[in-house]
Specification:
The chain contains six helices and seven strands. It is α/β, with parallel strands linked by helices and 192 residues long. It has a seven-stranded mixed beta sheet. Helix 1 crosses helix 6. It binds 5-O-phosphono-beta-D-ribofuranosylamine.
Length: 192
Amino acid sequence: MVKLIGKKNKIAVFISGRGSNLKSLIKFSKKNSTFEISFVVSDNKNATGLNFTKMNKIQQLVINFKNKKLAEKKILKYLNKKKIKFIALAGFMKILSKSFIKNFNGTILNIHPSLLPKYKGLNTHKRVLKNKEIYSGCTVHLVTEKLDSGKILAQKKVRVLKNDNEISLSKKILKQEHLLYPKTIEKILTNL
Ligand code: GRF
């Protein structure tokens, strides 16, 4: 159990784009949760998700990943300074290096829009539909240096209907992501 003496667990969220998972994490954290979003990192200065950061007065770092080593070094410096030991990747489109991940002890999580280990990587919904899968869903997993391959922590199944297309399927799954991710983070934090 993580000991909480009046204070919440600080977590950082890494994004690259829309930020709907970031939004749902912020919303959840403001309720009766054990965590707060203390820091947001984006590798994309135009990420619309950064609007939620501003709206909620959360400190943010926009950083170019062209030089990954340097970017990770800078991020680590911020995280250490702010004593943040937990990271939630939410639509973050860069792969973190082994040496960065080594600084964390199973406390970097990611959410992926498929039932892993199936459909790692991009265009999951398109591939699911093409293969006429009956089920798809979302997975929360630990982050390793191998894409979408770390230990699976939680999954939610979603039925794929005959008339589903990429948009309808992604909408259904995203709705479940917004429920599963905060719940799983809360569970992991209270069991650390
Ligand atoms: C989500 O589908 C998530 O599973 C995947 O990237 C998407 C991010 O969406 N890793 P958003 O930026 O949180 O809206």
